[in-house]
Amino acid sequence: MRVAATTPQALELLHSIAATAISWSSGRLDVFGLGTNNALYHKWYQRQWGPSQNDWEYLGGTFSSQPTAVSWGDDRIDIFGLGTNNQMYHKYWDGSAWGPSTTGYENLGGVFSSRPSAVSWAENRLDIFGLGTNNQMYHKWWNGARWGPSQTDWENLGGVFSSPPSAVSWGPNRIDIFGLGTDNRMYHKWWDGSRWGPSQTGWENLGGVFNSQPVAVAWSANRLDIFGVGTDNALYHKWWDDLDGVVDDWVGKPRGAF
């Protein structure tokens, strides 16, 4: 990877905004975070840290949200974040250079109230989710040729949420999205390859009462694991598999508070 200009000193990340990290191959890590100037910075690991142990690559921009990064294949990275106008911006690494430029970003429109969540279920496929100013869920996708429903428009998926979304994919043409409603219960929507379930704007109630954004992961086809912090600050867990379906209750309490 060619190294763009870096700051002359080690980067001080904002304490209130966590970094995000992804891996596009074995032994490879890419880490992104906002500096105290709200610009995006990048560090990578492949046998050693680049551009150096303490320095970070400067990627420009001015952001109001933590970045979200995703990879759909080897040597490919896509990054999304909210600008100071709360519109969605996008940058990508294509294996040889940052696009649209090292410090430039593509405007994807919309006006949002939360950091985005992005997933990829196939090569050249991206799905991005975020909460609008009405706290409803919105969706945009890249199909390898164009953005849908358009460059700057977003699909309305309904709901009213109090937390940023968490999206995950366990296989081709499958997406599962989780978020907290205004009652702080967990809600779920899925894409099955042909339609949104339980409906275009409806959401499945998974219960619980939480005080933090959910985290969802998938480690095989038809398997989902969802985690959230309860009002007692303990960690809770629910899962779905193709044998038992969804577990009705949330499993806790593991030791520790968060």
From TrEMBL:
Pfam families: DUF8189. Residues 24-242 form the PLL-like beta propeller domain. InterPro entries: PLL-like_beta-prop. It comes from the Eukaryota. Signal peptide: none annotated. This is PLL-like beta propeller domain-containing protein. It comes from Coccidioides immitis RMSCC 3703.
